[in-house]
Amino acid sequence: MKVIELNSELFKSKIMDFEGETQWKFKGERPAVIDFYATWCGPCKATAPVMEQLAEKYDGKVDFYKVDVDKESDLSAMFRIQSIPSILFIPKQGTPKMQVGAMGVGQMDEAVKSIC
């Protein structure tokens, strides 16, 4: 699996309908990881290959997405993104957890395991 770019419409269909729901209600079939990034951000560029590597490792078990905060300001506002990269780890059941800052493969792999 590759990391899939989310826009607002895809987010509403695959993750959560943030316009129709007032509380978190995850729509995904598997746990998910969302990287909030910008194309000009150096640490974001370092995070991208880590996301790709883990997307391959967890193919069919965890879905990996990315959101360009410059293009999707409504999504970045909804999650109050102030620093990038910000990575949202979403378990199938329960509350998602946000990690701010770049993560190495080992650190991100442990975070992914915690939502499986």
Helix content: 25-40%
Tally of alpha and pi helices: 4
Query: What is the top-level CATH class?
Result: Alpha Beta
Tell me the CATH superfamily. Answer: Glutaredoxin
Shape: globular
Strand composition percent: 15-25%
Strand order across the biggest sheet? 1-3-2-4-5
According to CATH, the fold-level topology is Glutaredoxin
Query: Are there runs of 5+ residues with pLDDT below 50, and where?
Result: none
Radius of gyration: 13 Å
How much is the average pLDDT? 95
Largest sheet: 5 strands, mixed
- β-strand number: 5
Which structural class should the secondary elements be placed in?
alpha/beta
Question: Do you know the CATH architecture?
Answer: 3-Layer(aba) Sandwich
User: How many independent structural domains?
Assistant: 1
Q: Secondary-structure element order, as H and E?
A: EHEHEHEEH
N-C termini distance = 16 Å
